[in-house]
Protein backbone atom coordinates (compact mmCIF):
# COMPACT_ATOMS: atom_id res chain seq x y z
CA UNK A 1 0.00 0.00 0.00
CA UNK A 2 1.24 3.49 -0.80
CA UNK A 3 2.38 5.29 2.34
CA UNK A 4 0.43 8.39 3.37
CA UNK A 5 2.51 11.52 2.91
CA UNK A 6 2.73 14.78 4.81
CA UNK A 7 3.49 17.94 2.89
CA UNK A 8 5.70 20.59 4.42
CA UNK A 9 3.59 23.65 5.37
CA UNK A 10 5.44 25.85 2.86
CA UNK A 11 4.88 23.31 0.07
CA UNK A 12 1.17 23.04 0.90
CA UNK A 13 0.81 26.83 0.90
CA UNK A 14 2.68 27.17 -2.40
CA UNK A 15 0.60 24.49 -4.13
CA UNK A 16 -2.68 25.97 -2.91
CA UNK A 17 -1.56 29.40 -4.16
CA UNK A 18 -0.83 27.83 -7.54
CA UNK A 19 -4.32 26.35 -7.59
CA UNK A 20 -5.92 29.74 -6.83
CA UNK A 21 -3.81 31.43 -9.52
CA UNK A 22 -4.91 28.75 -12.00
CA UNK A 23 -8.57 29.57 -11.27
CA UNK A 24 -8.03 33.31 -11.68
CA UNK A 25 -5.62 33.60 -14.60
CA UNK A 26 -8.23 32.98 -17.31
CA UNK A 27 -10.77 35.70 -16.32
CA UNK A 28 -7.98 38.11 -15.43
CA UNK A 29 -6.41 37.61 -18.86
CA UNK A 30 -9.78 38.14 -20.53
CA UNK A 31 -10.20 41.46 -18.70
CA UNK A 32 -6.79 42.60 -19.92
CA UNK A 33 -7.64 41.57 -23.49
CA UNK A 34 -10.93 43.44 -23.32
CA UNK A 35 -9.23 46.61 -22.09
CA UNK A 36 -6.71 46.41 -24.92
CA UNK A 37 -9.53 46.13 -27.45
CA UNK A 38 -11.24 49.16 -25.91
CA UNK A 39 -8.04 51.21 -26.22
CA UNK A 40 -7.35 50.22 -29.83
CA UNK A 41 -10.77 49.94 -31.44
CA UNK A 42 -12.90 52.81 -32.80
CA UNK A 43 -15.71 50.53 -33.95
CA UNK A 44 -18.74 50.82 -31.65
CA UNK A 45 -19.83 47.20 -32.07
CA UNK A 46 -16.36 45.96 -31.17
CA UNK A 47 -16.21 48.23 -28.12
CA UNK A 48 -19.59 46.92 -26.92
CA UNK A 49 -18.30 43.36 -27.33
CA UNK A 50 -15.16 44.27 -25.34
CA UNK A 51 -17.22 45.83 -22.53
CA UNK A 52 -19.41 42.73 -22.31
CA UNK A 53 -16.28 40.56 -22.15
CA UNK A 54 -14.83 42.70 -19.35
CA UNK A 55 -18.07 42.63 -17.33
CA UNK A 56 -18.50 38.87 -17.71
CA UNK A 57 -14.86 38.15 -16.86
CA UNK A 58 -14.95 40.47 -13.84
CA UNK A 59 -18.01 38.63 -12.50
CA UNK A 60 -16.28 35.28 -13.01
CA UNK A 61 -13.10 36.50 -11.28
CA UNK A 62 -15.11 37.88 -8.35
CA UNK A 63 -17.07 34.63 -7.96
CA UNK A 64 -13.88 32.56 -8.01
CA UNK A 65 -12.19 34.80 -5.47
CA UNK A 66 -15.15 34.56 -3.11
CA UNK A 67 -15.19 30.77 -3.45
CA UNK A 68 -11.43 30.40 -2.95
CA UNK A 69 -11.51 32.69 0.10
CA UNK A 70 -13.63 30.11 1.91
CA UNK A 71 -12.56 26.85 0.24
CA UNK A 72 -8.80 27.47 0.52
CA UNK A 73 -8.36 30.56 2.71
CA UNK A 74 -8.53 31.31 6.42
CA UNK A 75 -12.12 32.69 6.23
CA UNK A 76 -12.19 33.84 9.83
CA UNK A 77 -10.26 33.12 13.00
CA UNK A 78 -9.44 29.69 14.40
CA UNK A 79 -12.61 27.96 15.59
CA UNK A 80 -14.81 30.24 13.49
CA UNK A 81 -18.10 29.12 12.01
CA UNK A 82 -19.40 29.75 8.50
CA UNK A 83 -22.99 30.17 7.36
CA UNK A 84 -24.12 27.44 4.96
CA UNK A 85 -26.14 30.10 3.15
CA UNK A 86 -22.93 31.94 2.32
CA UNK A 87 -21.37 28.64 1.26
CA UNK A 88 -24.28 28.01 -1.10
CA UNK A 89 -23.94 31.47 -2.66
CA UNK A 90 -20.23 31.12 -3.37
CA UNK A 91 -20.68 27.54 -4.59
CA UNK A 92 -23.34 28.59 -7.09
CA UNK A 93 -21.21 31.49 -8.31
CA UNK A 94 -18.20 29.26 -8.85
CA UNK A 95 -19.70 25.99 -10.10
CA UNK A 96 -22.94 26.73 -11.92
CA UNK A 97 -22.68 27.45 -15.62
CA UNK A 98 -24.17 26.23 -18.89
CA UNK A 99 -23.00 22.67 -18.12
CA UNK A 100 -23.38 22.12 -14.37
CA UNK A 101 -26.34 22.87 -12.10
CA UNK A 102 -26.41 22.68 -8.30
CA UNK A 103 -29.25 21.22 -6.19
CA UNK A 104 -28.49 22.46 -2.66
CA UNK A 105 -30.54 20.58 -0.05
CA UNK A 106 -28.96 21.82 3.17
CA UNK A 107 -30.52 23.91 5.95
CA UNK A 108 -29.12 27.36 6.66
CA UNK A 109 -26.91 26.70 9.69
CA UNK A 110 -23.60 27.84 11.12
CA UNK A 111 -21.06 25.04 10.78
CA UNK A 112 -17.44 24.71 11.93
CA UNK A 113 -15.16 26.35 9.39
CA UNK A 114 -13.31 23.21 8.33
CA UNK A 115 -16.55 21.33 7.62
CA UNK A 116 -17.72 24.07 5.26
CA UNK A 117 -14.30 24.20 3.59
CA UNK A 118 -14.48 20.43 3.18
CA UNK A 119 -17.96 20.64 1.65
CA UNK A 120 -16.82 23.18 -0.95
CA UNK A 121 -13.77 21.12 -1.81
CA UNK A 122 -15.86 17.96 -2.18
CA UNK A 123 -18.08 19.85 -4.61
CA UNK A 124 -15.00 20.41 -6.77
CA UNK A 125 -14.13 16.72 -6.55
CA UNK A 126 -17.67 15.73 -7.53
CA UNK A 127 -17.67 18.19 -10.44
CA UNK A 128 -14.58 16.43 -11.85
CA UNK A 129 -16.63 13.23 -12.17
CA UNK A 130 -19.05 14.77 -14.71
CA UNK A 131 -16.72 16.29 -17.33
CA UNK A 132 -19.59 16.76 -19.79
CA UNK A 133 -21.80 18.47 -17.23
CA UNK A 134 -24.84 17.46 -15.21
CA UNK A 135 -26.36 18.00 -11.77
CA UNK A 136 -24.64 18.07 -8.37
CA UNK A 137 -27.06 17.27 -5.54
CA UNK A 138 -25.89 18.19 -2.02
CA UNK A 139 -27.40 16.62 1.11
CA UNK A 140 -26.47 16.66 4.79
CA UNK A 141 -27.17 14.56 7.86
CA UNK A 142 -26.86 15.51 11.51
CA UNK A 143 -26.68 18.68 13.57
CA UNK A 144 -24.58 21.77 13.01
CA UNK A 145 -21.66 20.40 15.04
CA UNK A 146 -21.53 16.92 13.50
CA UNK A 147 -23.11 17.30 10.06
CA UNK A 148 -21.89 14.92 7.38
CA UNK A 149 -22.34 15.33 3.64
CA UNK A 150 -23.16 13.44 0.49
CA UNK A 151 -22.82 14.91 -3.01
CA UNK A 152 -24.31 12.98 -5.90
CA UNK A 153 -23.04 13.83 -9.38
CA UNK A 154 -25.25 12.82 -12.31
CA UNK A 155 -24.22 13.44 -15.88
CA UNK A 156 -23.39 11.83 -19.20
CA UNK A 157 -20.33 9.57 -18.95
CA UNK A 158 -19.88 10.17 -15.23
CA UNK A 159 -16.74 8.52 -13.88
CA UNK A 160 -14.41 8.47 -10.89
CA UNK A 161 -11.23 10.37 -11.82
CA UNK A 162 -8.42 7.83 -11.66
CA UNK A 163 -6.07 9.50 -9.18
CA UNK A 164 -8.68 11.10 -6.92
CA UNK A 165 -9.45 8.27 -4.43
CA UNK A 166 -5.76 7.89 -3.55
CA UNK A 167 -5.33 11.66 -3.21
CA UNK A 168 -8.36 11.93 -0.92
CA UNK A 169 -6.79 9.23 1.26
CA UNK A 170 -3.50 11.13 1.39
CA UNK A 171 -1.74 8.35 -0.51
CA UNK A 172 -0.95 9.66 -4.01
CA UNK A 173 -0.07 6.85 -6.37
CA UNK A 174 3.28 8.35 -7.41
CA UNK A 175 4.17 9.37 -3.85
CA UNK A 176 4.08 13.12 -4.53
CA UNK A 177 1.59 15.94 -5.04
CA UNK A 178 1.75 18.71 -7.63
CA UNK A 179 -0.42 21.75 -8.33
CA UNK A 180 -2.86 19.67 -10.41
CA UNK A 181 -3.40 17.19 -7.57
CA UNK A 182 -3.37 19.50 -4.56
CA UNK A 183 -7.13 20.16 -4.43
CA UNK A 184 -8.36 16.58 -3.73
CA UNK A 185 -5.32 16.02 -1.49
CA UNK A 186 -6.29 19.14 0.49
CA UNK A 187 -9.90 17.90 0.71
CA UNK A 188 -8.58 14.74 2.37
CA UNK A 189 -6.59 16.82 4.85
CA UNK A 190 -9.72 18.80 5.75
CA UNK A 191 -11.72 15.60 6.22
CA UNK A 192 -9.19 14.08 8.59
CA UNK A 193 -8.90 17.36 10.52
CA UNK A 194 -12.70 17.21 10.97
CA UNK A 195 -12.69 13.56 12.09
CA UNK A 196 -14.37 12.44 8.85
CA UNK A 197 -13.60 9.89 6.15
CA UNK A 198 -14.25 10.61 2.48
CA UNK A 199 -15.46 8.03 -0.03
CA UNK A 200 -16.08 8.32 -3.77
CA UNK A 201 -18.10 5.52 -5.34
CA UNK A 202 -20.23 4.72 -8.37
CA UNK A 203 -23.96 4.45 -7.60
CA UNK A 204 -25.95 3.22 -10.60
CA UNK A 205 -25.61 6.01 -13.17
CA UNK A 206 -24.09 8.52 -10.73
CA UNK A 207 -20.96 9.18 -8.66
CA UNK A 208 -21.40 9.71 -4.92
CA UNK A 209 -18.85 11.66 -2.86
CA UNK A 210 -19.51 11.38 0.87
CA UNK A 211 -17.90 12.57 4.10
CA UNK A 212 -18.91 10.51 7.12
CA UNK A 213 -17.62 9.91 10.62
CA UNK A 214 -14.28 8.13 10.49
CA UNK A 215 -14.33 4.58 11.87
CA UNK A 216 -12.81 4.11 15.30
CA UNK A 217 -9.16 3.13 15.24
Summarize the structure.
By secondary structure, the chain is α+β, with helices and mostly antiparallel strands.
Question: Could you explain how this protein is built, in words?
Answer:
This protein is α+β, with helices and mostly antiparallel strands. The protein has one domain: Heat Shock Protein 90, CATH 3.30.565.10. Helices cover 48% and strands 20% of the residues. The protein contains six helices and seven strands, in the order ααβαββαββααββ. It has helices spanning 9-40, 44-71, 84-95, 113-128, 164-168, 182-193, and strands at 81-83, 100-105, 110-112, 134-141, 148-154, 196-203, 206-213. The strands form two sheets. The chain has a five-stranded mixed sheet with strand order 2-4-5-7-6, covered by helices on one side. It has a two-stranded antiparallel sheet with strand order 1-3. Helix 1 runs antiparallel to helix 2, helix 2 crosses helix 3 (84-95) and helix 4 (113-128) packs antiparallel against helix 6 (182-193). It starts with 8 loop residues before the first helix and ends with a strand. The model has no long low-confidence stretch (mean pLDDT 91).
